[in-house]
Amino acid sequence: MAFSVFCVLVPVLAVYSVSATPITMVGTGYEGITVTIDATVPAENCGIILANLEVAASSASQALYHALDGRAHWSSLTVLLPSHWPDSCVPAHIPVPSQGETPDIRVGATHPVYGDTAWTQQSRPCGQQGDFIYLSHRLLLEPRDVGRMLLREWAKYRYGVFDEVGYSGDGVYPSCYHGDLTQDIQINGCSDKPLQHGGECHSGMPLNVSHSVHPDAKSSLLFTTEPDHITSFCNSITHDRFAPTKHNSLCGHRSITEVILNHRDFQDSIGGNTGVNTTPNIVYKRATLTRYVVVIEDTKDMLIRESWSFLRLALRKWAVHDLPSNTEVGLVSANESNAQRLRGLSPLQSPGARDLVASNIPYTPGDTRAPACLSCGIKEAIQMLQDKERMGGPAASIIVVIAPGTSEHAPELEMVIEEASDANMRIATITYPAQLRSRPLDWLANATGGAAYTVNESRYNMAASFLSTYFKLTNVMWNMMETYYQGDVADLPIEIHRRELLDDGRNSVTGSFVLEEWLGEAAKFFIFTHNTENPLIRGVSLVSPSHRVFSTRSDSLLSLKLLSLPANINETGTWTYNIERFSGSPQPHYVQVMATPWTRTAPVVRARLWTSETNNPFILYTEVKRGDWPVLGARVEVTVTRPETNGSGIHREKFELLDTGSGDPDLMKGDGIYSRYFSPSVGGPGVYTFEVTVTDNGNTAYSWQHEMRQPGRNLELSPNCCGSLMPTPSVEPLSPFQRVLPPITVSFNKDVVMNPAVVGRVGDLKAEILPSELKARLSWTAPDMGGTSVTRYEVKYALTIGEILDSFDSATAWTHATPFPLAPGSETSFTIDLTRNPSLLDQTLFVAVRGFKDQSPDAIPGPVSNWVRVLVPSPPPPPPPVPTYPSSPTEDIWPQPDESVIPRIADRLDFNLELILPVIIGIILLALCLTIYCYLCIIRRKKPEKSSQSSSQHPEKPLNVSIVPTTPTSNANISISTPIMNSPTRSEPDTRTMSPQFEPCLIDPDDPKKRYSMAQYNDTHMMTREGVVPNSNGHLSVISANHANHHQNGTLVRGRTLSPYQSWTASQLLHEHERRHSPYGQVGEEYLQQEQQYAPPVPPLPSYNQQDIYGNHQQQTVPPPGQFINGYHRNGNLMLFNPSLQGSLSSVSSGDRKKRNVTMV
């Protein structure tokens, strides 16, 4: 477990960095400018292209000399020819082998966005050199003066200035803008004479900048180069420092001339030189050969466990397996006092010659621990290269120095570095196996424009090193070969997949990689293993996209710690591999897949890494492109480690590079260049390693279509591009890919940690006015505060541009709200609500923001952002009140007979159609709703009303009464029950026991006056808790209330017919008496007016048995009663009410009944 943790914490460092192009200035002339012709340029008309290129270079040199008042011109120019161009393209010259020049100007095909206009790729801040200048070869097919156009791009590339012109549709650098000196819109640019526009700024049409300059204007070349009278740059007098140009935003509002004269090329220049020949000397070269001399320190410090054996194997793999045939290699060892030539420069034309290079490296280093004489070894290498050049001609000459560092003060090394630079030789360094001296070797490489690497040995145990040391060292040697290869870059394989296999308990590991569309020639599958005798691998299988299986291993490279599969990997798609490992393997395995492009013009995804010129602030840049087109949406992840001298990792972090175009540090969005700040404030001073991995970000990366469009016959010189954003033409998704770049190392001292540079400027602030809401919405990209996130913002406004830019601290702060801080690269928005401060309405405000990296009150703020103009108008005044009388007594306010009144009303009340129509529609809808409501009410009234069983007017329980007369075979019965007692399971009444003359009648129960009540007997000797208990006599009436032994609940059963006086209760008798003899007259006459009414129930028949009529009686079987509600029958046979037979329905009120005594009857 301890070993596995140690493996995670100990990184193996392989570091790479390349300095800027070694352009030198001798007197007033630049030397070392290199122009390369891309492989995409056809060989047809090559002679015309080169002839016009010479004319353009002479014109640009003359224009540069004039613009800078004789301070500079081009002295020499080197043109690198592509391999497919014949020598006949330059009949007046003989191409010579190149010396490894790095191109400054590229000539290629028409660009999809820039067209045929010359342009410069710039990634670094103001004042630092750009990446390259790009010229369309179609620009050189005909004689034309492109000198000033080339000069404009040279100023951007060499001096780090930017355009002084706006871009159509750009929210940060617009074509036209409103300033604070005038209310009229004006052109965004710089000139020594007023700029004029023909209305394009008002109409929004693209601006023709060449027509907007004054006929007598002389500047500025960064605004336009088309008129012949534009020959100079804007200076401090003619410069408009408040215009929202890209140069003002990125260069602190300094003029072009101020930035140029502050460059290191003109520190001691005074200008005014005359009589200088400005025509450059042009030399044509062709990349043919690379010569390497490897200088190795031969001391005891080179031996740390397996570090020396790993070095021997890495050099053998590099010389025998990796280097192309157009390479020559020599070996030199340096001890504490002198240097020894191990192998002279010899070409690698045969396997035997390659083997001799690696075989001459000593098996063990020297015994002394004194620092080696590296100056002696470099001198010997210089001598070897010079001798070879005299015999075999020039070539790219590279001195590779491998040592654990140098002393702090080494004057002898400084002398040999100068000698190497004078001989056009570069020094590439590898600090290995660790930095055991006070200084790494990087400074030797930086002084000569070479590459610098660092590889630290990683300890496994007391005697062994981790395989990762060897794996990183071989990658460093491979990258060095790629950097200095003299030929088409498409000839070399590229790494498309890498994976580290650790012992995680699994015996079988499965993985996959994607062979991209334009790759596949000679693709190779390798497995790095530590043990060459027993690789600890049981089996390997590789499955193609068409399901073809390859499982045959090859041990031909096992001496180099490599296992390979002789598979034909040329099928596009996803390949799957399975590796069976022995569990418990102490060393990791590494899987590596190398593939070669089909052709030299194949659009293959490539990436490269570089840094800013200074380390305070320190910026990382990564360019990701497919061919020449940018890759968008990629994931560029940086892994940062800070190792100690013994190899233990102390600080580790990860972050992603961004392509946001925020201006600090990323200058343009969508150009395929990802960047980010880094600060060592968290990890402290020390040597940091940055390793970058580029992936497709989960199939989200995309690029421009390769076969996008064919250029037309005419030149495309009109595009005015690009400001904060590169437009995106038609795009297509990319296949999954992975690119792991060689790491770089940077040393940060204590001063950098304690005094970091102030960065984190918001460079893309934009404003949107919301007049209806009385608000202004600000938007920007969250800044990168030097490797950390912003913690708070400060929003201020002023009435002039100068006040907000020059006196931001004294400007008025917006205190009603503050923006919410987000992570770097996040889209941020903030709304200024002017209803909080209505006094600012109708005022022209200039707003800017700045961020802070911490919350402390004394925190150092970041730079002030670009300014934006905010003008929120006041809301319109309310309409005038509606007059209540005519404006003139004599005015006729009534319409004519043939005139509608609505237009007159609308005209007087200042109503428009948008207001009148909704009112009319609302009135119609309201009338329709009222009509429907009235109709429903009428329908409801016509419907017969039915009384409810739970009416609040009759809270007493309803009863069901059945009156059954006695027949010879059965006794008459009366049944009294509640609705609850009437179960649905009861059987229907037996009509054979019912007499038709005694059918009950229905009386409306809703009216108390028409209610007919029937009360139960109140005799305690016949009523019990459960009801009337049956008697054995069999002839008396029985009232049963839900007794368990009876099926009819609440039923009055009598054995024979009873008279009303014998069977009715006192209340019933009183009620009937009042109905017949009421002093208030007959009640219920209203019933006579209705068509159908029902009389009260017919009294029960008299009983002939006078014996104990209230006694107990054995219940007889009776039919189920009919249902009554409030004492009135609702079901069964009903009869119409006849007042002549049944009397009046009137009765006294219930209150009067309660006052009467039953004995009054």
Automatic annotation (TrEMBL):
<feature type="transmembrane region" description="Helical">
    <location>
        <begin position="915"/>
        <end position="938"/>
    </location>
</feature>
<feature type="region of interest" description="Disordered">
    <location>
        <begin position="945"/>
        <end position="1010"/>
    </location>
</feature>
<feature type="signal peptide">
    <location>
        <begin position="1"/>
        <end position="20"/>
    </location>
</feature>
<feature type="domain" description="Calcium-activated chloride channel N-terminal">
    <location>
        <begin position="216"/>
        <end position="269"/>
    </location>
</feature>
<keyword id="KW-0472">Membrane</keyword>
<dbReference type="GO" id="GO:0032991">
    <property type="term" value="C:protein-containing complex"/>
</dbReference>
<dbReference type="InterPro" id="IPR013642">
    <property type="entry name" value="CLCA_N"/>
</dbReference>
<dbReference type="Pfam" id="PF08434">
    <property type="entry name" value="CLCA"/>
</dbReference>
<feature type="domain" description="Calcium-activated chloride channel N-terminal">
    <location>
        <begin position="24"/>
        <end position="168"/>
    </location>
</feature>
<keyword id="KW-0812">Transmembrane</keyword>
<dbReference type="InterPro" id="IPR036465">
    <property type="entry name" value="vWFA_dom_sf"/>
</dbReference>
<protein>
    <recommendedName>
        <fullName>Calcium-activated chloride channel N-terminal domain-containing protein</fullName>
    </recommendedName>
</protein>
<keyword id="KW-1133">Transmembrane helix</keyword>
<keyword id="KW-0732">Signal</keyword>
<feature type="compositionally biased region" description="Polar residues">
    <location>
        <begin position="963"/>
        <end position="996"/>
    </location>
</feature>
